[in-house]
Design a protein that fits this description.
The chain has 299 residues and is α/β, with parallel strands linked by helices. It has a single domain, classed as Ribonuclease Z/Hydroxyacylglutathione hydrolase-like (Metallo-beta-lactamase, Chain A, 4-Layer Sandwich). Helix content is 16%, strand content 25%. The chain has 6 helices and 15 strands. The strands form 4 sheets. The protein has a 5-stranded mixed beta sheet, with no helix packed on it. Strands 8-9-10-11-13 form a 5-stranded mixed beta sheet, with no helix packed on it. A hairpin with a 3-residue loop joins strand 2 and strand 3. The protein is globular, with a radius of gyration of 18 Å.
């Protein structure tokens, strides 16, 4: 019998990852005074009800970016925080809902998508079900997505903004453009975890900004490396992978190098829209290596 419920991992004290049927993961951070929910999932179940069981204190909901599997559940809430550059994308609720079924993790396993999944120590995670998509592992016959007819109030996230959960735990916002223009990552001082969304992950897609923008974003993120020991992306435990493991710290360097090989001409962009380094498979727009208002990067 296939799994018909979301999987919850406690990845640190009072810090939970919610694996929503292999489609996406979102996170619940619980402080003594307030909580923080990072993304809110696909709305294949009542996320607000589950969060209420995990987080007994008032909490804020923040969104890494506008893609549907990360924010379709926003209709459960009265207001959510998101970067201003992402807000216009949330106007079309029908389009967000339609994208739920376009999630490649539903249909294909990691191996068929050309992905190598790393373990925290940098070795490859050759899990037994790596050939299987989420639909082959979870009970998708009984899964449906809630379609909302209203959008919550949108509050503006700002780079450097801090959410104080209690006297010893805070979460800082890091604007990390690349995957999308207003993508944000979140750095938790209490657990020393970087929640990177889709902004730093093995399947790194850069289709809505230039590669130059993404490279500069990774460079800035690199400045925060002394402040975190683990990385969790929003596609932790993707497809039929149920391990819920953190990513190796070397992943950020892999993202930087993959971008550099595109920008310095090592990768012949006329022949491909992919570049790989280490565990990162970078997908980019070969016609958008640099935007006209950007300063070129010289290596």
């Amino acid at each position: 019998m296939n799994i018909d419920y979301p999987i919850i991992y406690e990845i640190a004290y009072n810090t939970y990852a919610i694996n929503e049927f292999g489609m996406v993961s979102f996170f619940v951070l619980v402080g003594k005074e307030r909580g923080l929910v990072i993304d809110c999932g696909c709305a294949s179940f009542n996320a607000k009800e589950l969060i209420g069981h995990l987080c007994p204190v008032p909490y804020d909901v923040v969104l890494t970016h506008h893609h549907g599997e990360h924010c379709n559940g926003m209709g459960f809430f009265d207001h959510v925080w998101i970067h201003p550059l992402e807000m216009d994308y949330l106007k079309n609720l029908d389009e967000l809902f339609d994208r739920m079924y376009h999630n490649s993790a539903i249909w294909e396993g990691a191996s068929r998508r050309g992905l190598r999944i790393p373990l925290p120590d940098g070795r490859e995670w050759n899990f037994p079900s790596r050939e299987r998509g989420a639909k082959d592992f979870y009970d998708f016959k009984n899964i449906s997505f809630t379609e909302f007819d209203r959008r919550p109030d949108l509050l503006s996230l700002a780079d450097g903004q801090v959410f104080l959960l209690d006297g010893s735990r805070s979460v800082a916002v890091i604007h990390l453009p690349g995957h999308t223009p207003g993508h944000c990552a979140f750095l938790d001082s209490g657990s020393r975890i970087l929640f990177s969304g889709d902004g730093c992950c093995p399947n790194q897609s850069i289709r809505e900004t230039s590669v130059t923008t993404a490279y500069r974003g990774f460079l800035r993120l690199n400045e925060f490396c002394p402040e975190f020991d683990r990385i969790f992306s929003s596609h932790t435990a993707s497809g039929a992978d149920t391990a819920g493991l953190s990513l190796p710290l070397s992943l950020l360097a892999d993202c930087l190098t993959a971008c550099q090989t595109v920008l310095d001409g090592t990768v012949q962009v006329k022949d491909t829209s992919y570049a790989s380094h280490g565990f990162v498979r970078l997908r980019f727009d070969p016609n958008r290596l640099i935007d006209k208002d950007e300063t070129p990067i010289h290596f």
